[in-house]
Amino acid sequence: MTGKPRIVVLVSGNGSNLQALIDACHAGTIAGEIVTVISNRAKAFGLERAAKAGIPVQVAAYRPFKGLEDGRGAYDSALAERVSALQPDIIVLAGFMRILTGRFLNAFPGRVINLHPALPGEYPGLHAIDRAWDDAQRGLRDHTGIMVHEVIEEVDAGPVLGTAVVPIAPGMSLEALEAAVHGAEHQLLVDVVATRCLQIMDS
Predict the structure, then answer these.
(1) Mind listing the pLDDT tens digit of every residue in the chain (203 residues)?
(2) Active site residue: 26, 116, 182, 186, which one?
């Protein structure tokens, strides 16, 4: 292909993983361009991070669709139209706190990737770090991890693109584990997106 792969990032909150992607693109570690950041929450700090970096932002609120008979599907279709207009090569869910249906995913087969703070098959859904820490306190495990995967309609499933193990040391606080997981997330997400960009450019 000619030009850099086009990356669209979807966020809902603080956007620390988005910041890792922004920094890696600026440094040339990722041979791609973040063309737009979209959030379902107008006050998400991730939008401020993007704007500060000169990246266009959009808000795609669910509120106008709430109460509709097929609100979730209608929202996903509208979001797919927005994203499709940006001609993305990669769509990164970086803390996007909505479960996307086939109405969105089928528009971008193989192009939507997600970061989840657990290893494949472990702790799907919310509060994965807390659940792993709780199990460690009961002596049931001494590690957790993270994964990046292609998104399918099953939550936190889909082909795995990369993993990393995060040890849970004896006496480790939940806050310390969260910090360790987030640090590993930033590195793994950058590595996977960088690899995907190179694959796209070589195709």
Answers:
(1) 668 999 999 999 999 999 999 999 999 999 999 999 999 999 999 999 999 999 999 999 999 999 999 999 999 999 999 999 999 999 999 999 999 999 999 999 999 999 999 999 999 999 999 999 999 999 999 999 999 999 999 999 999 999 999 999 999 999 999 999 999 999 999 999 999 999 999 98
(2) 116
- By three-state DSSP, how is residue 66 classified? coil
Cα distance between residue 17 and residue 58, in whole Å: 18
Which residues are CB-neighbours of 192 under 8 A, at least 6 positions away? Answer: 113, 148, 161, 162
* 156 beta partners: none
- Cβ atoms of 36 and 86 closer than 8 Å: yes
Q: Which residue from 118, 78, 109 is spatially nearest to 91, judged by alpha carbons?
A: 109
Question: Cα separation of 18 and 67, whole Å?
Answer: 31
Q: Is 127 a catalytic residue?
A: no
DSSP 124: -
* 6-202: CATH superfamily: Formyl transferase, N-terminal domain (3.40.50.170)
pTM across the whole model: 0.96
| Measured distance CA(29)–CA(18) in Å, rounded | 14
